[in-house]
Each structure stands twice: as structure tokens, then as C-alpha cells.
Amino acid sequence: MKNNLQFDFIADKEKHTLTIKREFLAGRQLVWDAYTKSELLDKWFAPKPMTTKTKSMDFSEGGHWIYAMVEPSGTEYWGRMDYEKITPIEYYMGWDGFCDENGTLNPALPRARWDVSFLEKGENAMVESVITYNSAADLETVLQMGMEEGLISTMERLDELLVTLNG
């Protein structure tokens, strides 16, 4: 089943940003929950065939989420999101980076600011993420790592999860 849901992926190398707009066949509250609850994030927040596992999550201002994207072979890629600002069901801002399994950030890999807004688009939800990197080189690094393809696959997983949650 293919839907004509909006999906924009815009890389701005002058501003060092990625802007992703994605529409979902679900209400804003359900999509917010999928982005902010570890038991739901673990079901979709990795491109296929990887899975996600949460080590710890405190979704509050000053809190953080430590998680791993896990390959079928068992190889783990750890990440950390530090939440700075939260307006429930509307917006959150946090700093995402690569880390080890204890949450210690890897300074050799890019860290980015994520501004994530949850909007209504009729009966659907629209999520707009503006991801800001420190430099054009950092942006290029994540693009070369497959950020666009990975996000497309990850968003398709969220589509599949939302269908099951909408019942």
C-alpha cells in the first residue's frame, strides 16, 4: 500500500541543516507518543533490518535517551539524545550524537541539534525536523553515512507501527 504522504528531505550545506518534513496517517498525539516513549521508539527507530533497544530514557527537559541501533549480526551503534526543551504534543529540541554503551559521547563523530515540531495536517500528523550540524563537513559526514536512505526506511517502519496502533 503506497500513500501519497508528504516527505521532504532538504540538505542545506550553507546552513549545515537537514530539514525533514514527513506526514503520517495518524493523529498528532499518537505520533508524539511514537517519538517520545521508549517502548514505541524501540519498535521503529532504526532502518531495516536493524532494530532499536533503549538502555535508558528520561523524556524531560535535562533528560536523555541512550539507545542502540542493532544489526542482525548483533553489532550495536549507540546514540544519545539530550532533551533541552519540550512543549508536549507540539515540539522538542535535543542534541543527538554517537556514543558508547555508557552514553559517553564520541567527539570524533558529528553531534546535531534536533528541532522537532508536531503539526496537524487535517486528520494526519506532520512532523518537521530541522537538524543543525556544526559544519558543512559534519553534514556531509552523515549524508555519506546514509542518513537519507536510513531515514526513509525508518519512517516506513513508523508508518507500519502506526497502522497497528491505530487498530
From TrEMBL:
The lineage of its organism: Bacteria, Pseudomonadati, Bacteroidota, Cytophagia, Cytophagales. This is Activator of Hsp90 ATPase homologue 1/2-like C-terminal domain-containing protein. Belongs to the AHA1 family. Residues 28-162 form the Activator of Hsp90 ATPase homologue 1/2-like C-terminal domain. It comes from the Bacteria. It holds the Pfam family AHSA1. CDD domains: SRPBCC_CalC_Aha1-like. InterPro entries: ASHA1/2-like_C, START-like_dom_sf. Transmembrane segments: none annotated. It comes from Dyadobacter helix.
